[in-house]
């Protein structure tokens, strides 16, 4: 996510605060302090590797891999410390939402399902996806973060835009955890492969690579994936890459070569060919209108 370059407070309203933090040159063992407001939910996306987090109000410690996230509820105002022991860049994206906004949004009194969602949020059941492991961001989450960071709207249009994107992020979180519950009952091959691709589509991966890394026969991968999603593994990878490329292409600050690399293409020519095949125009022509 090389276009995540803005830092500091990106948005603030009575109910929502969005912060982008990037410490590019941290001293060894230096710590950043993150504040959680009283009776608030935090969506915290870790965008650099090996970030350690320690909450000061309880004996909670995490080690985050790159692109992991958590949805955390804090009943009281609290602080957490984040640091990297290897003098690596510390980069994270935090969305704070107050309790009353979430309560009104979910309306737990309207149905048991809604009440269960809020209950799970309050009890921090959206922190570990499985085996005490924070979940990884999906492609859609990456795209929404890019949109929030690059947005230039002001006033009421900005507020409506931000709120719409946060609602979409929450939906994606709930869907991801619902899929987790379904997989625990019956972990199908096609779901495992889709999850692997969603997390690695920007790399140079093929069905053979997926097979060797997951231990699943590559012929089974191809057959079951196409039966479930009506497209081949290669077509799905290409679709994710092109969706991301189209989102990035509108940002004039990012070179076409950077977009190609970010979307998993080693050579710009291959990226341009795939882009034109998908959208009917070259990246340059779409960018310049």
TrEMBL record:
Keyword tags: DNA-binding, Transcription, Transcription regulation
Gene3D superfamilies in the record: Homeodomain-like
Domain HTH araC/xylS-type: 191-289
Cross-referenced InterPro entries: Homeodomain-like_sf (IPR009057), HTH_AraC (IPR018060), HTH_AraC-typ_CS (IPR018062), PchR_regulatory_protein (IPR053142), Tscrpt_reg_AraC-type_HTH (IPR020449)
PROSITE patterns assigned to the protein according to its UniProt record, in alphabetical order: HTH_ARAC_FAMILY_1, HTH_ARAC_FAMILY_2
Protein name as it appears in the record: Helix-turn-helix transcriptional regulator
């Amino acid at each position: 996510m090389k276009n995540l370059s803005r830092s500091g407070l990106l948005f603030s309203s009575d109910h929502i605060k969005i912060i982008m933090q990037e410490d590019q040159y941290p001293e060894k063992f230096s710590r950043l302090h993150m504040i959680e407001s009283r009776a608030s939910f935090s969506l915290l996306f870790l965008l650099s590797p090996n970030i350690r987090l320690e909450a000061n109000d309880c004996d909670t410690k995490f080690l985050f891999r790159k692109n992991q996230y958590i949805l955390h509820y804090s009943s009281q105002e609290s602080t957490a410390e984040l640091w990297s022991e290897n003098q690596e860049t510390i980069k994270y994206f935090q969305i704070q939402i107050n309790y009353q906004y979430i309560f009104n949004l979910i309306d737990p009194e309207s149905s048991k399902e809604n009440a269960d969602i809020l209950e799970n949020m309050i009890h921090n059941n959206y922190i570990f996806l499985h085996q005490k492991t924070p979940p990884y961001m999906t492609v859609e989450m990456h795209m929404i973060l890019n949109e929030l960071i690059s947005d230039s709207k002001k006033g009421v249009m900005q507020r409506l835009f931000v709120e719409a994107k946060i609602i979409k992020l929450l939906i994606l979180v709930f869907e991801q955890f619902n899929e987790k519950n379904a997989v625990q009952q019956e972990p199908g091959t096609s779901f495992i492969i889709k999850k692997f691709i969603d997390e690695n589509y920007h790399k140079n991966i093929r069905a053979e690579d997926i097979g060797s890394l997951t231990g699943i026969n590559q012929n089974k991968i191809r057959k079951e994936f196409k039966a479930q999603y009506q497209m081949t593994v290669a077509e799905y990878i290409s679709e994710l890459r092109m969706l991301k490329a189209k989102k990035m292409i509108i940002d004039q600050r990012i070179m076409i070569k950077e977009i190609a690399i970010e979307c998993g293409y080693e050579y710009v020519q291959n990226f341009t060919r795939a882009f034109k095949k998908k959208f009917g125009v070259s990246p340059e022509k779409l960018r310049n209108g």
